[in-house]
Records
---
Amino acid sequence: MNDGALDDYLSGWRDGDPQRAYAWLFLRPAERIRFGGCEALVHEWRKTLREVREPQVAVAKLGWWREELNRAAGGEPRHPLTRALFADPRIRAVPLPCWTAVVDAVLLLVAASPSADFDTQRRAIAPLSAAVAELETRLWFSPPADAGRAAAVTALTDLVTDLRSLPGEVERGRSPLPMNLLARHGLTIEQSAVDGPAQRAALRDYAQLLGDALADAATMMGPLTLFRAVALQRDLQDVARSAGAENPLAALRAQAAGFGTLLKTWRAARTWRAVPHSEANA
């Protein structure tokens, strides 16, 4: 196995957010490969959705990944991430459909139209968030763990991630903002990426919707992975700040780091460790 290639994928995902790097400190070496590798793999599939302009190219790339998962389950992985992950008995114990369901859900979004409103937006992303949450919950917790809360949080953190990348999303023909908000503020999709009073007002309205939904998800019952818990903490803080900021996008994109963030991550790690885990996660 090319350990350097594996490290590149793991570090590329981990270093994309300071809170992930903090969470990394509280994982054992095997957990970093198992849990971090799973997150990095899902990130590769999401990148195909977010970064590939031509739908047919995205479909081809995701088709390759689906084939790779079948090969990995059969003991013939080729990619550094699948080679590392499927060497782990805990990974091999997860049914193959749990992995391919994530790829299939990404495929559903390749040619998706802009959502009419916030509720439609959440329904559109629900198959992907549910598949990711089911996969993560199987890996991190002893069955039968309920993945409902994880699915709700995953959907909302994905929407916040899209909003942080607003200019790039619009450049690729995608609209992080639902169409009814654009209409309310007299914006086209292209204009939503341009700073100005109307754009800022629309972003504040959307941040309020996201903040209310995140607050509701935070009170739900059910376990969250360490990475998912710290993402929820960050998004709650950032979205609340964005809803009241003069420049909502700048406020949302400001990266939080420092001792306070590290302390919150430590607390999240303690909460996660307190949840029953399978012996394979010890």
---
Amino acid sequence: MMLRAGSARRRAHMPLACVLGSMDMVRPLGLAGIRCAVVARPGAPSLYSRFTEATLCRDGFSAGDEELVEALLRFGAGEPQRPVLFYEEDAQLLLVSRHRERLAKAFRFVIAERELVEDLVDKSRFCALAQRLGLPVPATRTLDPSGPAPADLGLRFPIIVKPLMRTQAWDVIAKSHKALEVATLAALHELWPRLAALGSDVLAQEWIPGPESRIESYHVYVDAAGAIAAEFTGRKIRTYPEACGHSTALEISDAADVRAQGRAAVEKLKLTGVAKFDFKRGPDGRLHLLEINPRFNLWHHLGAVAGLNMPAIVFADLVGRPRPMMAPARAGARWSCAWKDLPAARNAGVPVGRWLAWTLRCEAKSAMAWDDPMPLLGSVLSRLLAKRDRVDTAARLQLSKQAG
């Protein structure tokens, strides 16, 4: 399996960025004049961008994907200069971390220390680490659904229940929710058989009152010398589903306390590389740390259009070029994923006309840009063709059965 080169001519004096991720990672790199090789799922918008020079389609990602590692090594070894590797999902992060020595022979990348990556990705290990370091996490307990439902959790209800790591089995049970809200002990007992079907432990955590818009984040790049090279803060506007859902609308903020707590956590963790710290602001204004993701993410698109292009700074450091001049990220800049944000806005009671006007004013739109229209168009066309092929295949199978 090989990365297929596109029609654009490669520039030997500038390494490529190899992006395991979405258009929200490709665009900030492209805006900085950096060409990309993209590894993504079939039909992903990032495969069709004008910034994309080579592609590799994968149906999914896993931390143990030896075939993908070999494909990456072949690609990197064939480049005039070692590409810079970017990764956006937990599975991709773990793949790079667990194969870092091999991948470093063909790629340049930043990544947190190996043990810290494992501690931050596994929710149970993260909570144990946070308690040791005195980080402000909500009260938490690990549950084993293979046994009987507990009579007493030692936690105040309501709680949220979430997997130690996201899996397809969790997505089936939770129906697109990243976590499940559980109001009472009786409700937990009712949920227990579904949790048992996961075949793995889950995390129970005291719920911090307030909507998802109370979730605020700190984004940082710590360079190899341990210095904070770039940082900004942000907040969620909407998610879908409304509770414990995925981000559909975001905004850059300028929250001094979020920045201060993020910096303090960076120092305690001795973290290097990139990371996102998610906090939830309680009714009393206090910040509670929910999770830390030591990887690139969709926020970097918004940061770039707001004036602080973190992936471009990382790229410059890794290839030995001067860092691009950056201003602090502009508070108030907004990002949306329109096709997901529309149902989120409707759930929130926002009229369609007002939502459309708001969306058009967003500085960053996932996979949508006038100067790069093919990500959206190519993705839609690809999915329509794939759906037609599935219908044709089903019809042929049905005719075959009837003939038999």
